[in-house]
Amino acid sequence: MRRTIRFSLLAACLACAISTLVGAQSPRMPAERLAQLASKPTPKMAAGVPDLNGTWDHLGGIEFVQPRQLDGGSVCIRGCAPAAGQTRPAPAAAARPAATPAPAVGTAFPKYKPELLAKVTDLDTHQVENDTVLKCQAPGVPRIVPPHKIIQNARELVFLYDDVSGGFFRVVPLDRPHRKDIGGSYLGDSIGRWEGDTLVVETVNFNEETWLTDNGAFHTKNLKVIERLRRVGDTVQYQAVAEDPAVLAEPWTLRPQTLWVSDHEIEEPARCEDRDLDHVVDGTHHTNPR
What we know:
CATH class of the domain at 31-61 and 104-268: Mainly Beta
Distance between the termini: 27 Å
Strand content: 15-25%
Number of strands: 10
CATH architecture of the domain at 31-61 and 104-268: Beta Barrel
Shape: globular
C-alpha cells in the first residue's frame, strides 16, 4: 500500500510553491550577496525611523511540502517513497521533543513541559488530521514566518503574506494599545512600537487552532509573540520569541532570519481547497526538514 496523501484539489493552493520546488530546492542567498545588500544606506521615513516598505524575500513557509510530484499530478505531502536516487532521511519526529544541544541563538522547536510531551507527539503523529494549515486556515504567529511585503506609514504597518494555505495580512498599528473588544483569532492582535531603529511587534489574543511551527507545536490562547525587525541597508533582520508559560518550559526564541529586498511583487495566490483530505490512506507521518 502506498503511504501517501494526495491533495489533487489542495494542490491549487500549492501550485506556485511547487513550481519552484519540483526538481530542485531554491538556492539560498549567498552570504557575500547579503553582505553587499546590508552595506547599502538604510532608507528612512520622514520621522527618522527605518523605511520597511517593500517586498522581502526569505524562502520561508513551504518547506514541509516534499519537492516531488506523483502520478496524475498529485503532490506528495506525507509518507512519500524516496524519489529515484534519493534516500529517505530519518524521521525528524524521532528527535522531537527530546532535548538536543541548542544553537547559539534560537532553536528549531520549542521546549515543552515534560508532562505535555505526549500531547506534542500525538499531534505530530496525526498532523494531517489536526493541522489547520492543511485545512486552508492561517498558520498563526510565528509559524507564518516574516512578511513577504510591508506597507508602512507614520501610524501603522501592514504585513502581507503569500503562504502555502493562501494570502493573509496583519495590520500593526503604532498608536494604540491592544484591543479589548475582539475575540481570539488565528493571527492575533498586533501592536507595534519603535525601539531605536528596531520595530517591535507584540501579538496576543490568539485562538488555540494554530501551532507555533510544524509537528504538533500547540499553544494556548495566552500565547504572546514578540517580533523584532531591523532594516540594515537592503536587508531586514528578523527575530521572534514566543511566550506561553502554561505549556512551554521556557520562552521559545526562533532562529533569526535575514530578509532581502526583492523587485518581484507578490501576486494573488491560487485558491486553497482541502476536499481531498478524506482520501488519507493511513496515519504515517511525513518527514519534515523544517
